[in-house]
Design goal:
With about 525 residues, this protein is α/β, with parallel strands linked by helices. It has 17 helices and 13 strands. It starts with a helix and ends with a helix. The site of pyridoxal-5'-phosphate has 14 residues, from helix 7. InterPro entries: Aminotrans_V_dom (IPR000192), GDC-P_C (IPR049316), GDC_P (IPR020581), PyrdxlP-dep_Trfase (IPR015424), PyrdxlP-dep_Trfase_major (IPR015421), PyrdxlP-dep_Trfase_small (IPR015422).
Length: about 525
């Protein structure tokens, strides 16, 4: 093991006292019982070692010319057990929904039933190829069509685009659909370039609008944490293409004036995009179509389980109203007398003639479709309704149990997530970030912090419906204990946290501003220094 190299790597990450974690443990190995130190795989390199036994390649004259390999390509040499141990140790350093409560607000980190995984691994779904002839994948196409039917039924919408690969991708799809509809309606001469987005919106909303060539105009929140309807109406005009509104919003509140907002937006000739990432709170209870929504993405990976985190995989189908139903991405599944088929181009006889092209190589995230449909069918319509009720009940239990020691940002009950701000930490010398670090020592992944931006030092806690009362009580006990500790003047406890993790507190600013993304072998470093 190359300890020298490891230190270099830790310094490069900007870790304060990085080596101290092992030194403090006082063990010879640097390990702390089951918490094993793990160098980078490159630092474990033993040149020439491999996990396979291959015969020497025959000596043939290379035909690669200029593109011939000139030096080592730098892949580390390790045996099979070394590789397995490396990745197993790394995986043990992860916090996961399978190891404990994961209260990240807005992310809906719920339990993923194992049944979904089992079904997604059926060879008929997992071993097929998107370029296979349609007649050989009728079951897969039927599954996409059945899931689409459920999504349309649950939202009351007439159409759904299945191919977007995540929530943000769904927003892009919905806004491209709106842009296509406006251009079609106004004959390509539309002056509608402005999109209204509430201040509390997820960052992907303004980013999507800007990526589609619109300018973004922020709508302020009122004192109850909801959209200020009068401010919204004053911003409507014939240059507005759409509003992008999240409901329930990112403060965990239902936008009570949503129908009035939809009517005003439509009267101004604009479309209503709804960010449906929080559908978990209302699924089975409210149909977005009844609220006047024109387009809404559904994060299958938030509402209908399917694992997520770490960058994917996700799936963000977009439901569309009558006004937008023709303006869809290709391809999509249709059902005819000869079974299921895919509309792949505008020349297809089933084409709407108004498709705006492809968003993705193929038809969508098949594995996520299988998991989401398994989740839907195993819950049934009544079970899905129960999901929403339990998610809201759990969040309100957290809100009510912490309301006296922390500061809820808005009055009254919440929907699926409880929002607090940092007023209760005033004068303690402890920030939201310090508080989050102390939660890690208690064995919890922190909640979403500093988002939404409309409150100061936000704590956004979303327990989801899959936590039991016992698990919520344990979490509440920790949160209460930490809040009381901060108020008792023990700031040092927080400023020094985390103490029990493989690494202590990171210099996050340094890591963001001066990221060191490439590991340099020690030899090269020495050569560079000479
Ligand atoms: C998660 C989320 C998104 C983005 O979804 P991704 O699948 O992560 O791209 C957008 N808006 C809100 C409110 C979200 O919570």
């Amino acid at each position: 093991m190359n300890t020298q190299g490891r230190k270099t790597h830790i310094d490069a990450l900007g870790v304060e006292g990085g080596g101290a974690a092992s030194a403090a443990a006082g063990t010879i190995s640097g390990n702390r019982a089951l918490m094993l130190e793990e160098p980078l795989i490159f630092e474990q390199d033993s040149p020439g070692t491999t996990g396979v036994d291959l015969p020497e390649p025959p000596a043939v004259k290379s035909r690669l010319g200029q593109v011939r390999e000139r030096g080592r390509i730098g892949l580390p040499g390790l045996s099979e057990p070394e590789v397995i141990r490396h990745y197993t140790r790394l995986s043990q350093k992860n916090y996961a929904i399978d190891s404990g409560l994961y209260p990240l607000g807005s992310c809906t980190m719920k339990h993923n039933p194992r049944l979904n995984e089992k079904l997604a691994r059926l060879p008929g779904f997992s071993d097929i190829h998107p370029l296979q002839p349609e007649r050989t994948v009728q079951g897969a196409l039927e599954l996409i069509d059945t899931l689409a039917h459920w999504l349309k039924t649950l939202t009351g919408m007439p159409a759904v685009a299945m191919s977007p690969a995540a929530g943000a991708h769904g927003e892009l799809c919905g806004m491209m659909s709106i842009r296509a509809a406006i251009e079609d309606r106004d004959g390509g001469t539309s002056q509608r370039r402005r999109v209204l987005v509430p201040e509390s919106a997820h960052g992907t909303n303004p980013a999507t609008a800007a990526a589609c060539g619109f300018t973004v105009d922020a709508i302020p929140a009122d004192a109850t944490g909801r959209v200020d309807v009068e401010a919204l109406k004053s911003k409507l005009g014939d240059d507005v293409a759409a509003i992008m509104l999240t409901n329930p919003n990112t403060c965990g509140l239902f936008e009570r004036d949503i129908v009035e907002i939809a009517e005003a937006v439509h009267a101004a000739g604009a479309y209503f995009y709804c960010d449906g990432a929080n559908f978990n709170a209302i699924v089975g209870r409210v149909r977005p179509a009844d609220l006047g929504i024109d387009a809404m993405h559904i994060n299958l990976h938030k509402t209908f389980s399917t694992p997520h985190g770490g960058g994917g995989p996700g799936s963000g189908p977009v439901v569309l109203s009558d006004a937008l139903a023709k303006f869809v991405p290709l391809p999509y599944v249709v059902h005819g007398p000869d079974g299921f088929s895919l509309v792949e181009s505008g020349a297809d006889e089933d084409s709407t003639g108004k498709e705006f092209g492809r968003l993705k190589g193929f038809h969508g995230q098949m594995g996520m479709f299988v998991r989401a449909l398994a989740y839907i069918l195993s819950h049934g319509a009544d079970g899905l309704r129960q999901v929403a009720s339990d998610a809201v009940l759990n969040a309100n239990y957290v809100m009510a149990s912490l309301g006296d020691v922390m500061t809820p940002s808005f009055e009254g009950p919440c929907m699926h997530e409880a929002l607090f701000d940092d007023r209760f930490l005033k004068g303690t010398g402890v920030t939201t970030l310090d508080f989050a670090k102390a939660m890690i020592d208690e064995g919890y992944h922190p909640m979403t912090m500093y988002f939404p931006l409309v409150v100061h030092g936000a704590f956004l806690i979303e327990p989801t419906e899959t936590e039991s009362k016992q698990s919520l009580d344990a979490f509440i006990r920790v949160m209460r204990g930490l809040a009381e500790r901060a108020k008792s003047g023990d700031a040092d406890h927080f400023l020094g946290a985390p103490r029990m993790t493989p690494r202590r507190r990171l210099d996050e600013t340094g890591a963001a501003r001066k990221p060191v993304l490439r590991w340099v072998p020690e030899v090269e470093q020495r050569e560079a220094a000479e």
